[in-house]
Structures are given as C-alpha cells and as structure tokens.
Amino acid sequence: MNNTVIRVTNFRKTYGAMVAVDGISFEARRGEIFGLLGPNGAGKTTTLECLEGLRQADGGALDILGVDPGRQPRKLRNLIGVQLQTSGLPADMQVDEAVRFFCAYHDVAPRYDLVSRLGLEAKRRAKYGQLSTGQQRRLALALAVAHKPPVVFLDEPTAGLDVESRTELHALVRELQADGATIVLATHDMAEAEKMSDRVAILLRGKIAATGTPREITATGAGFTKVSARTEQSVLHSNGTGFPGVSRHLIEEDYAVYFSTDPGATVSALLAHIQSRNDPLIDLRVERPSLEERFLEITGRQ
Ligand code: ATP
Hints:
Elements: E1 4-15, E2 18-29, E3 33-37, H1 44-51, E4 59-64, H2 73-77, E5 80-82, H3 95-105, H4 112-117, H5 133-145, E6 151-155, H6 163-178, E7 182-186, H7 190-196, E8 199-204, E9 207-212, H8 214-220, E10 225-231, E11 246-252, E12 255-260, H9 263-276, E13 281-287, H10 291-301
Parallel strand pairs: 3-7, 3-8, 5-6, 6-7
Antiparallel strand pairs: 1-2, 1-4, 8-9, 10-12, 10-13, 11-12
Helix pairs in contact: 3-5, 5-6
The structure holds adenosine-5'-triphosphate (ATP).
C-alpha cells in the first residue's frame, strides 16, 4: 500500500537571485511525524510556506494527497492544518470567537471540546492578547486541527514554552499522530526533534544534508559512541585506548569511559578483558551521540 501523503520532488524556490531552496526531495507518510531541521536561513519556512500554498514553487513538484498546493488552494484548505505563529490572531479576539471563526472557515461545528482538552476552559471568554505564550500556542494548535486535517504543519511549536506546556503539546501531537495525521515539524530544538520525529531531513543552505530516522542519522557520523563501564576492582582504569575502535579514554568517577567509532567491537573486547581478570561488571552504558551533536557535525562541516 502506498502511504505517501506528502511528496516533494526536486523542489526549488528562489527570491530574485537568492536561491532559498535548491532542488530538495523527500516524502512523509501517513501517521508519521517528519522533522524539518536546519540552521537559520536553511529554507525550512520557505518549504513549509510552499507546501501550505502561501507561496509558489519555482521548480519541481509538490504533492499533498494528490493536490498541488500552489495550484489547488480550495482543495488544499481542508487537507492541511497550520499552527499560526503567536502574532497570527487579533489581540482582542476571544478564544471562543477564534474557535467559531476557524471552524466556520472549514465548515465544521465549533470544536469547544479541543479548548477544554488543551486546558483553556477557564479562558474561553479571555482575549487572545491576554493569554500567556503557552496558552496562545495551545489555542493555535487547537485551531489548526479543529477540522481534523490529515496533514498538520507545525513551525517551532514549543519555542518559548515551559517544560509542562511543552510536554502537554507533545502529548497532543502524539494523539494526532495516533489518529493517523501526518505531521511536519520544523524546529530548532534538536531534543524535541529527536524525541518526536519518526524521520527527519536536515536542510542546509537550501539542500538536504542528511535524511533518515534520528537513529540512522546519529549512527552514521564520525560522532563517537561513549562506552562507560564500572567494575568491582576497576581493572579497566589501567586500560586506556587498547580496545578496538577507541580513540580516547578517561576516568569519570568510578567509570572507565571510552569514545569509540566501533562500539560493538569495543564492548566485546572490554567484556572479554574484565572476564579474563575476574573483575565483575557492575554497570555498562553505551550512549550514541545525540541528534544535536550530529546536527552540529553536519552543519559545521559544510
Ligand atoms: P529560520 O530558522 O531562521 O526561520 P529557515 O530555515 O526557515 O530559517 P527561510 O526563512 O526559508 O529559512 O529562508 C531561506 C532563505 O531565503 C534565507 O536566506 C532568507 O533570507 C531568504 N528569504 C526568505 N524569505 C524571503 C523573502 N520573502 N524575500 C527574500 N529572501 C527571503
């Protein structure tokens, strides 16, 4: 079965002489959270705006469930939900009014249930401008998904939010995903991208520098895997870079720590070594480089 919901093929966008997006291709599938990452000016917003039908592509093809966003705005309207940036609503518009307005636009009954679901019940008569940043973001998400669109675009959805609001918003995004929505998440927050995304594309100066699951991306760089081991008699403390794949070794509290390009070989050799010395293992940790470390490696290199 073909589950592709969004297909971007050789997409290109220029602003005058400035090439903002230079022939990128990717696909997002049904029920997938797709992370669009990249440093400032990489082309994320431009890509989102073209997919949302707000700008026209200059080359290549964009397709959302068979609809060309630049050419079929009416068909696109009910297929996508877009979380507005915080400044997107009039400051004196009440929460309930905003819900009525957006639901009328999409021709669905007002979704006051979402207002409660997002913890805004007590704020239904409050004006948009009087809501906190977190409340504004939650309302923006409610408005984006009120018509149950199969595709949702989120641009920096949790920037500036406290941990609790962020967690709440993530939970809601997971619910949308469980209902089968495809979510495109543009973010600078690598921890968020790593935790939330099924697959990501890292954009760099208008091109895709890396794409795959966060695990695939963190597994491929030169980034070293950190292998830490603690044993009863600390025999590893005197064994430095002798294990395969290890280029750096240090002692951190009771742990012998190895930075390895070949963690499988390192761990096997390490276990064989402590076994041969009859030094029982207390703890072993293998930590991949984070997506943030890998992101910095990719964006720093090019
Ligand atoms: P950020 O993380 O800073 O939001 P981004 O990845 O979303 O960045 P874009 O906003 O898509 O990047 O910008 C890509 C490039 O296109 C940048 O060099 C930007 O200066 C340029 N650009 C964006 N919008 C316009 C515009 N309306 N006119 C001219 N150039 C633009």
